Amino acid sequence: MATKRSIFEEVGSVVPPVAPQGGLIDGRGKGARRGIRIWLALIFLLVATMIVVGGLTRLTDSGLSITEWKPIMGAVPPLSDADWAAVFDKYKASPEFQLQNSQMSLAAFKSIFWWEWGHRELGRLIGLVWAVGFFGFLLARKIPVGWTGRLLGVGALGGVQGAIGWWMVSSGLSGAMVDVASYRLATHLGIAFVILGLIAWYVFLLGRSESELLVARRGAERKLVGLSTGLMHFAFLQVVLGALVAGIDAGRAFPTWPLMNGDFFPADAFYVPGRPVWAAFFENPGLVQFIHRMSGYLLFAFGVVAWLRGRKSAHSATRGAFHLVIVMLVAQVTLGIFTALTAAQPHVAITHQIGAVFLWVLILRARHLSAYPVAGSIREGTA
Q: Where in the sequence is the domain holding 293, given as residue range(s)?
């Protein structure tokens, strides 16, 4: 029971100080934000690495070397000569070997096998890292309020991605196919960028407390959020179009710029033997590369518009984020041109794909800082 105080108590009497209380937002269920952020950053690096390895797997024509989907047992590679002979025999039954690689030796087969096996092994590692981290934080009750569904969603998307990967590979194991279906490859890469984008966004959010985010959101620059959202969607479309180009080796068909073998619009753009006109948008190298080029020009123009608006932001961090976007966009367009001029040489093409990852993340960062601006200080020169 509280002690009654006299109305005649002197003003100068010592009163025990009351300890300050944290805000309701940060004081309840804040969880291990820093630990989860580090864990997600690790998964982000692994997913980015897997995108690069996947690109190299495609560029080296290694994607069809493993003709079975064994999510668990497939982690063990061939360990004996008999094992290698059995795996090679299965590959020999595929259309790719019979129609394109019938002279391939076992030694040459091993080189493409290891690329595909490494790609799948990275997928298993990502799943393991996610499961250990998620269930570890869950059992320790360290997941912040409202974050369990988000983190579970990342794992679920990873599982879906594994199934899509096999759906993609299976398209090249029957009929007269010597490559995977381009639209399935585009779906596979698109989901990879969705996963990468979600993880990056969560890492950005976890870098600040809930109360800081709530305050920052009140100062959101709505026009910039809209522009950066549009730029994000446009960049994603360009990634998918790039996958369609890679899926049919369209990048090697027109090694000239700015024209395509002397023409602005390629000849026979809508012709695919034995296929309807609509199939040309997925299977005609000239039309697919033309669309990718035109989309790249439009993306660059849109990026310039977003940058011109972003550099006028009231917040230095936001201005800096849009400066990085325009620098990376210029670099990516340049890489795209060199990729075309070199007929998609592997080292140039994979650098172009890495550039897409950097551009994607920088656009997301600019969007995040537009929606949750960091207030600067005039005294410190960060306004």
A: 216-383
